[in-house]
Each structure stands twice: as structure tokens, then as C-alpha cells.
Task: inverse folding
């Protein structure tokens, strides 16, 4: 299965030991993880500025994700889909990856539930989604 993680789930996966980290760890060994440079740049910015992680720790996280995922150049969307235009970058990356799902905690994305055949689910809903596949 092809999985794309939104920035907020990646942050949670590396900050707390909870559902996001469990889902991310599981996907590392069982599925293909996709990301984009836009997601990695946003992750770097949030970890550095909002969470005040040391630059070396942020670099290690980015390198780890880069080494364990496939990088895609997001497809162009012909229209704005989300209220927050930044979220369109996540949708575009998932579209290019031909992802089966986007794992996110972002309510603006979750409300869509589906984008062009790509399921949009929360980390806590991932397990049920995986079983049904």
C-alpha cells in the first residue's frame, strides 16, 4: 500500500509515542511511504521554529524520512480544493504518488474524506482502513 503522511502526523510521530508514531513505524516496514520536498520543508520549519528542535536533530529526522520514503514532485491541481491552500500541496503529492491514503490530523483535509480515489484518514482510523483493504 502507498501511504503519504501529512506534516502534522510526521511531527507527532517524532515528538510523541502514540498513534502517529505507531502508524508511521508500521508503515516503514509494511508499506511504501511517499513524501514531497514541500512536506519536508514544512516539517523542517515547524520542528525548528515552533518546537525549537536543534538543527542537528531536525536534519537527522529529515534524512531519516528521505531515506525511508519515495520523493514525488507534486502533480499540478487545476483548482483549489482546500480552504487552506497549503493543504493542496499534500493532495497534489498524494495524487502524483498514486497513494492509497493520506494520513493526517488536519480537519480541512479530513473533511474531504476522499480525493480522486485517495482515502484521507486520521492516524487512529488507519488500522481499520488497512484491515478493509
Result:
Amino acid at each position: 500500500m502507498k501511504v503519504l503522511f501529512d506534516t502534522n502526523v510526521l511531527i507527532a510521530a517524532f515528538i510523541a509515542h502514540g498513534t502517529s508514531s505507531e502508524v508511521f513505524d508500521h508503515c516503514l516496514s509494511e508499506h511504501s511511504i511517499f513524501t514531497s520536498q514541500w512536506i519536508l520543508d514544512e516539517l523542517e520549519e515547524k520542528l525548528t521554529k515552533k518546537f525549537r528542535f536543534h538543527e542537528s536533530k531536525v536534519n537527522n529526522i529529515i534524512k531519516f524520512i528521505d531515506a525511508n520514503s519515495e520523493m514525488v514532485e507534486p502533480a499540478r491541481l487545476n483548482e483549489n480544493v482546500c480552504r487552506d491552500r497549503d493543504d493542496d500541496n499534500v493532495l497534489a503529492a498524494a495524487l502524483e504518488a498514486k497513494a492509497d491514503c493520506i494520513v493526517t490530523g488536519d480537519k480541512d483535509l479530513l473533511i474531504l474524506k476522499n480525493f480522486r480515489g485517495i482515502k484521507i484518514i486520521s492516524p487512529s482510523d488507519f488500522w481499520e482502513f488497512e484491515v478493509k483493504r
